[in-house]
Design goal:
The structure is a single chain. It is built from seven helices and four strands, in the order E-E-E-E-H-H-H-H-H-H-H. With about 220 residues, it is mostly helical. The chain has two domains: about 70 residues, no CATH class; about 150 residues, no CATH class. Strands 1-2 form a two-stranded antiparallel ribbon. Helix 2 crosses helix 6, helix 3 crosses helix 5 and helix 4 packs antiparallel against helix 7. Belongs to the ARV1 family. Keywords: Endoplasmic reticulum, Lipid metabolism, Lipid transport, Membrane, Sphingolipid metabolism, Transmembrane, Transmembrane helix, Transport. InterPro entries: Arv1. It holds the Pfam family Arv1.
């Protein structure tokens, strides 16, 4: 399996050696001489906090050392994440259009028209996002096609869009519409860190690639 040092990103053979149940020794990276993955002995809450703080080492731990593409359940996990991503995107579109188009007296045809718009927002918007994202990566990052697999890249995008879960809170509490766009910015910044980690590129091109893809998606959903 392809494990990585969370500090420098160098590939390592193993993360720890287990002598007995509950007795392990963390391995060190051959390049930076630091512990390859300190998160192995950390609570899940520590990992979540570091992900929220956009620490690249937390993303390396999650994308390389936990959710490894060579594991048997990778494809199933990818489809589940994709389904959750699309559902949250549909709910976001529903929230945006709620104040704009929903009223007390609406016919059945009006409801069908709104739900049709939501489906167009979700599928066409994400299709444009993916196309522009891959094109921007190729042009700005100049990353060769064999460097990353599409599945690993798509997994990084889905995982780093975890801020969309905050939309669920809007089912319970009432927030101003601006919160939706704040969540979009958080997703953009998280996607940028994940892209930097997965492609091992500089931050500026990653910001550019993610910004272009999100901007095209936003303009597409607004236009339709």
């Amino acid at each position: 399996m392809e494990y990585r040092c969370v500090q420098c990103g160098f590939q390592v053979k193993t993360l720890f050696v287990q002598y007995s149940p509950g007795n392990i020794r963390l391995m060190k990276c051959e390049k930076c001489k630091a512990v390859a993955d300190e998160y192995i002995e950390c609570e899940l809450m520590i990992v979540l906090i570091d992900l929220i703080l956009h620490k690249p080492k937390a993303y390396r731990h999650l994308l390389y050392n936990v959710l490894n593409q060579q594991r048997t359940h990778f494809q199933g996990l990818l489809w589940k994440l994709l389904f959750g991503f699309l559902v949250l995107d549909a709910y976001r579109s529903l929230l945006v259009r709620h104040d704009e188009e929903w009223g007390m007296s609406m016919s059945i045809s009006s409801y069908f028209w709104i739900y049709r718009k939501i489906l167009v927002d979700v599928f066409l918007g994400n299709f444009m996002f993916l196309c522009c994202f891959l094109l921007a990566i190729r042009k700005l990052l100049k990353t060769s096609a064999q460097f990353f697999r599409l599945g690993k890249l798509w997994l990084a995008v889905l995982i780093s869009s975890y801020f969309k879960i905050l939309l669920v809170a809007m089912m319970v509490w009432e927030f101003p519409p601006s919160v939706i766009y704040i969540i979009d910015l958080l997703v953009l910044s998280s996607n940028t860190v994940a892209l930097k980690v997965i492609t091992e590129s500089d931050m500026n091109p990653c910001v550019g690639a993610c910004f272009i893809a999100h901007a095209v998606k936003f303009c597409t959903t607004q236009a339709f």
